[in-house]
Amino acid sequence: MSELAQEVDRRRTFAIISHPDAGKTTLTEKLLLYGGAIHLAGAVKARASQRHVTSDWMELEQQRGISITSTVLQFSYMDCCVNLLDTPGHKDFSEDTYRTLAAADNAVMLVDAAKGLETQTRKLFEVCKLRSLPIFTFINKLDRPTREPLELLDEIEKELGLIPYAMNWPIGTGDRFRGVFDRSSRTVHLFKRSGHGQREADVEIMLLDDPRLPQIIDPDLYAQFLEDLEVLETMGAEWNEAAMHGGSMTPIFFGSAMTNFGVELFLKAFLQHALKPTPHDSTVGEIAPTDEEFSAFVFKLQANMDPKHRDRIAFVRVCSGKFEKDMTVNHVRSGKTIRLSHAQKLFGQDREIIAEAYAGDVIGLNNPGTFAIGDTICGTKKFKFAGIPSFSPELFAYLRSPEPSKFKQFRKGVSELKEEGAIQIMYSVDDAKRDPILGAVGQLQFEVVQFRLQSEYGVETLLDPLPYSVARWVEDGWEALEETGRLFNTLVVKDSLDRPVLLFKNIWNLNQVESDHPELKLKAIAPI
């Protein structure tokens, strides 16, 4: 194998999807602990004696105990180079999660064992399905009261249409959770709790037919475990890796991220079965990860990760070839040639300069306003990867700064957050109204924008809510809109690329306009 093929072969890139509070950030932190990337795992809401989690670096994330930005965490384990894309768990940031999934080859679906499938998990599963991503399922919080494990498998099969295959099986749940049985090695892993789950769990491994097992595990638990196992072995599906890679089967792992039970077993199995970097569709056909020529696309922008330096970083997924420091590439959208001199390896908020990267890796590039989300960069052969769409917001408000003296900082902050895709920004077609209109999926997006304008740019802001809840892009542009004439109960605005967008008070208003003007083509997703 060539050096390029060997390096691509080592890569595993994945994102974790879940409903808020399923334990996503905790699982992320524990994977880093087992990968040797950190020595002590943090808590999402840190006690005085614990450190904050690595992935939640923004001050507001640490205050609220939620993930509201995507970040990248790279670590090595079992001679694999793992790229973990941490996504926002909160539903208000589903667009950021969609963009991150565009850069992942695999998804890990995290399910709370007490609650089963929840709304946000179902939505994100649909996105994974659109992209045919293999989905690994980790059923979390086994150390708390849970639903029946067989019932959870049944729910995943019925509601998501996935064939579940239990890679391991729990022995007890809640206070009586003793460990898991690993089906591939036919071994029982009995766990001992460690201090607040900050270090790797102590594990005792025994064969299933070890005569000591019935003495160690309570008789009723042991009997229930054997009964469940018999049901699994006789009625459960056969393991099929091709079906898993095609997105129709999901391997299921049981454990507790908080206490580290089952995390290492999951990580080892994931590295064994996950997809390596896959080809990406482009305007010239599929681009294979082992193509010699470098290519990549921008899936995220982030401003002020380091508040001292007011930096702007473009998150770039390498799709083919080898990235080398100071290399010159084509920026396809602008037609310019640019030099990639200050590439960084990202790890939460921390950065270090890197000299090389391969397909599957995510690198950070300084962004002096050059990059936009969805941009392709490549070598001499010019082409474009498929773009990343924007979705219809559901809340709208004018954003104002009450301090005229800070207008310059206000305008700069709004411009940089717009580039980042943190929120959609639109403007009135009336030039006298200069205040931007924010479009958000949820209220928390507004709060984050106001918080960041205050903390990163020193600007106080006020929001004036607008009575609209639906946005539609006009497919054929301003000309088509002018031909249509006046529209009732509709506000016409322009997006940041100067394209016409119609805001409606509700779906009923939208349906009325569509039936009155069948010639007007409206789209819920911004044209790429």
In short:
This protein has 528 residues and is α+β, with helices and mostly antiparallel strands.
Topology:
Blueprint: H1 3-10, E1 11-18, H2 24-34, H3 59-64, E2 71-77, E3 80-86, H4 94-102, E4 106-112, H5 119-130, E5 135-140, H6 149-160, E6 163-166, E7 168-171, E8 179-182, E9 187-192, E10 202-207, H7 213-216, H8 219-235, H9 241-245, E11 249-254, H10 263-273, E12 280-282, E13 285-287, E14 295-303, E15 312-320, E16 322-324, E17 327-331, E18 336-340, E19 344-347, E20 350-353, E21 356-358, E22 362-366, E23 376-378, E24 395-400, H11 407-420, E25 424-428, E26 437-440, H12 443-457, E27 462-466, E28 470-474, H13 477-484, E29 490-495, E30 500-504, H14 507-516, E31 522-523
Parallel strand pairs: 1-3, 1-4, 4-5, 5-11, 6-11
Antiparallel strand pairs: 2-3, 7-8, 8-9, 9-10, 12-13, 14-15, 14-23, 15-22, 16-21, 17-18, 17-23, 19-20, 19-22, 24-26, 24-27, 25-26, 25-29, 28-30, 28-31, 29-30
Helix pairs in contact: 11-12
